[in-house]
Amino acid sequence: MDVVCSGVVLLMILPIAPVAVAAAKESAVNLLEAEALRKSGWWGDSSATATNISAHCQWPGIVCNDAGSVTEILPPYDYKIGDKLRNLSFSSFPNLVRLDLSGNGLYGAIPHQIGALSKLTYLNLSSNRFQGELPSSLINLTQLAHLNVSFNWIDSLIPPGIGKLTNLVTLDLSHNSFGGRIPPTLGQLSNLTFLDLSNNILSGTIPSALFNLTNLFRLYIHSNPSMGGFLPKEIGNLKSLVELDLSYSGFSGSIPPTLGQLSNLDSLDLSNNHFNGTIPSVSFLQLFAA
């Protein structure tokens, strides 16, 4: 009788064991995330509630999934995080898909550890005071669809490795001090619909590889006074373009007739360059060329 009963008990326990293990793992992850948020110091007195592992999901700007794991960190704009970004343990958030720290007074270098967020699809670090360079670890964020580091003080070359982030749909590097040439590897970002490289100190010509981005809706390279050269006929390949702004740069020569093939174009600004000759026949609504 004892043997039979033992068998019955085992039959009841075995199906439950994997569920219990999974629950224990989830609990451990949640506790690790709560502790990482507490140590960041971003939430001030609210961190005292971290002893309850589900309480952090109620903090401002924290979104969790049904299992209580953090999927989004979106502190309110102007939350005044300051230099405390270095206090955040990025590796503690295995399920994070969205990180928006825009307008929070962040400064210093962007931590290399940010490359640990392997599931990240959205990263917005705009409107801060980041300096230095974009960390090479960004190439680990292979799921990234949106990257925005605009309105900072970044003063490096554009890392060629960004071209490996082939899931990118939007890329905004504007209003920084990126220098040097536009890396041809950006032409590998075939899913890109929005590219803003404006208001930097880029130099050289537009690499021909950039004209492979046939899904681009908006392309802004304006306000780079050291850029120049001729505008190649391959610009006519960008059939999806709705807006194109190359103003306040150093482009010269004639405007290629292929520009008139961009039938979806609503707005074109070529002003404050050194173009000469005639303007091609175009059908878009707004034209600024001088």
Question: Could you characterize the architecture of this molecule?
Answer:
The chain is α/β, with parallel strands linked by helices and 290 residues long. It has 2 domains: 133 residues, Leucine-rich repeat, LRR (right-handed beta-alpha superhelix); 134 residues, Ribonuclease Inhibitor (Leucine-rich repeat, LRR (right-handed beta-alpha superhelix)), CATH 3.80.10.10. Helices cover 12% and strands 19% of the residues. The strands form 4 sheets. It has an 11-stranded mixed β-sheet with strand order 1-2-3-5-7-8-10-12-14-16-18, with no helix packed on it. The longest helix is centred in the N-terminal third of the chain and has 24 residues. The chain is elongated and about 65 Å long. The N terminus is likely disordered.
Low-confidence stretches: 1-6, 19-24, 46-50
* CATH level 3 topology of the largest domain: Leucine-rich repeat, LRR (right-handed beta-alpha superhelix)
**Envelope shape:** elongated
Distance between the termini: 97 Å
Give Rg in angstroms: 25 Å
Output the CATH homologous superfamily of the largest domain. Answer: Ribonuclease Inhibitor
Q: In short, what is this structure?
A:
This protein is of the alpha/beta class.
SSE diagram, text form:
Elements: H1 2-13, H2 17-40, E1 62-64, E2 70-73, E3 98-100, E4 107-109, E5 122-124, E6 129-131, E7 146-148, E8 170-172, E9 179-180, E10 194-196, E11 201-202, E12 218-220, E13 228-230, E14 243-245, E15 250-254, E16 267-269, E17 274-276, E18 286-288
Parallel strand pairs: 2-3, 3-5, 4-6, 5-7, 7-8, 8-10, 9-11, 10-12, 12-14, 13-15, 14-16, 15-17, 16-18
Antiparallel strand pairs: 1-2
